[in-house]
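HOLO CASE FILE
Compound: flavin-adenine dinucleotide
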Amino acid sequence: MITHRVDVAIVGAGPAGLLLSQMLDMSGITSVVVEKLGRSDVLTRNHPAMIEAASVQALRDAGIGERLSRDGYPQTGFEFAFSGRRHRIDLQRLAGKRMTLYSQADLTQDLVDARQKRAGTVFWEARNVQFDALETETPAVGFEMRDRAYRIDARFIVGCDGADSAARAAIPDDRLTLHTRDYPFAWMSVLAEVPPACEEFVYASHDDGLALCAMRSPTRARYYMQVNPNENLDAWPDRRVWDELVKRFGGHADRDLVRGPITDKSVTGFRSMVAEPMRYGSLFLAGDAAHTLPHTGAKGLNLAISDVWILHRALAAYFTSGSNALIDAYSETCLRRIWKAERFSWWMTWFTHAYPDFSSFDRNMQRAEFEYVIGSEAAATAIAENYAGLPIL
Ligand SMILES: Cc1cc2nc3c(=O)[nH]c(=O)nc-3n(C[C@H](O)[C@H](O)[C@H](O)COP(=O)(O)OP(=O)(O)OC[C@H]3O[C@@H](n4cnc5c(N)ncnc54)[C@H](O)[C@@H]3O)c2cc1C
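Model generated. Tokens follow.
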């Protein structure tokens, strides 16, 4: 058995785990990250992420802003298209903020590089991760790597291991409440080697379901389309994908959709989930391990960043002055913001998607909402401030 001792053992090398480890390191707190995948396998999430200004600042403060500032695309607004009309939500004017469009794979690469530069330890390809003595002040994480057994003794463990979190599963059922909502559809995501049809995100609501144009770069387009949760991708040859996108945008894009080679096609389900509380003894949960939401509001990564910003600050207070106040308040502090983001994502999903059980009444409710947003500065401002990101604290 190979043993290590650190202040904080982090499980999961996604954005939450890597960023937390970087922030702790900069505050002189020792940590290791334990990841079940290989180093290159964590870079496969290559969807574009809308990053809030507060998240960009948190990344910069952690020394991770350089490539993001250079290669990220500033986004000052996005649009809704509904019943033959388009309406732009001007984030800059209404909320005084802009967002940054950046690939999540590039962000993860930046985080991996930053950890490597500071000689941070990440145990890649760790199998069979186990948790021990979580309710005590001497918890541990055990795992196997290349046929050897490892044990990490720490003061705290942080579960940053995503939606199917093993850390969350290690909490006794009677100490955790899961609030969930499933949606009767999923998103088909399509990456194509063509110029995108829109300069900004356009959420086009159609009777057959949402289509979303998300620019990836001037020469690469990422489109999303609402589909059935169990959609078979074999039934979607490229020609059908393009026909469906053209129909759903219905002339609402900035320019005609350019058809071309589709290099990536996948289907992701939607689920809203909040785990409450986000702490059990010496274990904290952060990021998707603690909450998931539909991608409609572009909030998952941003919440992961705000969770670890709040947790890093709390752990720094604990290790530098022995104060428990912020770690004791961690769950409540995060959940206040998380529930607001859950509400916004749930609302954006309701507003822009076609639900299978919708009646003409429901569709007219969406239409009325759209009319309200077009006609009311207050309604548009409320959307803008939620989309651009509420303050972290
Ligand atoms: C199509 C799409 C578009 C999106 N767009 C946006 C957007 O515009 N803006 C936004 O804010 N968010 C967006 N998101 C959400 C965002 O990708 C996630 O919220 C974010 O990745 C969460 O980061 P995380 O580190 O908490 O979890 P993850 O990224 O899931 O990382 C978890 C890590 O833990 C590892 N792991 C899992 N189990 C174990 C185990 N047992 N032992 C060890 N390691 C383990 C995993 O391999 C993984 O590396 C989008 C998501 C999708 C799918």
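CASE NOTES: The first helix runs from residue 15 to 26. The pocket of flavin-adenine dinucleotide is lined by residues 11-17, 34-37, 42, 45, 47, 49-50, 104, 126, 129, 160-162, 166, 189, 268, 287-288, 295, 298-302, 304 (CB under 6 Å).
CLOSED: yes
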